[in-house]
Request: fold
Amino acid sequence: MPPKRCPSAAEQPGREGGPNAKARPWGLGALLAVGALSSSALAGDDHKVPFLRDQVSTCFTGATAGTPTASVAEIAENAGIITTKVKLKNAVPNTTYAVFVVQTPSGAGCNDVDGTITTDKGGNGNLILQEPLLPGSEDAFVYVYDGVDLMVTRDVVFG
Reply:
């Protein structure tokens, strides 16, 4: 079975140049597959990484460049369990974001919603998720998407 392909921003409805067909709201559509598959990795057990906007990213690497936001994810692995704390700050107010934890290098979970966060009137919201580390996975990244606003973290390598 071929791996899932992340559609480009031009293939998403509601975006300039996108089709009129319905899109799966949990797709990683705006991520661009560009460049080499190298990741910006961090060593250690617990990592606090900012979410990036205007990012360059893939389902296999997470964000490799972009504009930092005030929102962060804390990603840790312990005894085969990935714990992810998502803290949205100054995001779009009163908006529900789908949250995706993607395990790499395989890209597992790239199109699977792990949870949702609804921001308050200030654009703030929090969520804690846990999931098993899949065989062959060594690292992970997180992205949040509300259908328009997409923020992605860099890939975190578990030490």
Summary: The longest strand covers residues 62-78.
